[in-house]
Each structure stands twice: as C-alpha cells, then as structure tokens.
Known about the structure:
The chain has 154 residues and is α+β, with helices and mostly antiparallel strands. It has helices at 10-22, 83-98, and strands spanning 26-27, 46-56, 63-73, 105-107, 116-123, 128-130, 138-151. The protein contains two helices and seven strands. The longest helix has 16 residues, at 83-98.
Amino acid sequence: xxxxxxxxxxxxxxxxxxxxxxxxxxxxxxxxxxxxxxxxxxxxxxxxxxxxxxxxxxxxxxxxxxxxxxxxxxxxxxxxxxxxxxxxxxxxxxxxxxxxxxxxxxxxxxxxxxxxxxxxxxxxxxxxxxxxxxxxxxxxxxxxxxxxxxxxxx
Length: 154
C-alpha cells in the first residue's frame, strides 16, 4: 500500500494567506466557547472561510478559488455587538489585497502539505454587515476573496 500524496487545497492556501494578514485567528469554523463559557478569540476577533467557487486552469497548474470570508467579533457580557472590530478585520483583508507588491508570497502549509505560491488576491465585493445573529456576535462578510495560487514543486 502506498502513502497518498498530499496536495495543497484552496482552504489550506486561503487560511495561510489570511493568517499572514490578520494573524493566527483564521479557520474554517468558529471556535467553540471554553468549558467556562469564555471565548478565546473575544479580544482579537476571528475569521472563518468557506470555498464558494472558482476555477482551476486546464493547461497549467494554476488554481483560483473564490472564498467566502466572515469576520467575527464578540463582546462577552454584553448584548451589543462590536461592529467596529468585525469591520476592521474585514477592511484589513481588503487593504491587503490592494497592497499589490505584498500579495505574491510563498506560503508554508501545515502537516506535510507542499508549499504554495500566491500570485494574486482580490475581493469580488465589499464587506457587508450581517445582522440578527442570535448570539449577539458582530459579523461582516466578504462575499468573495479570489486567490490565484500554484503548488511549489518539492
């Protein structure tokens, strides 16, 4: 039996690129509260992502997924959502896509996956406020974050 070859995925690459922008507060799901009910991410906010679409080039190994991005913030002990904190995370991501000289970068992926080279990143829509969250979290969504990347040969 052979060991399967690990391949970079849109979620891994987008998570690593977003972490290079906002820090280690990015995952595909929002962390659950601790056993005492505290939110470990309350001070910083948190960013979640999901693959929403995109394409792979049929002639060259270039992938351009479009990710849906949600920026979250919480104000424990209050029913007032911290909209500014969530908005600031979203705007930091938008600003990073506009900083064209800094967008291309080589990313180290976790768990033995091959590195990826990001060639471009851009948003397909402005951040928008998402209201009526039952938990009183503040949330801004970026409807599309397109990241063009390729695996780096080992």
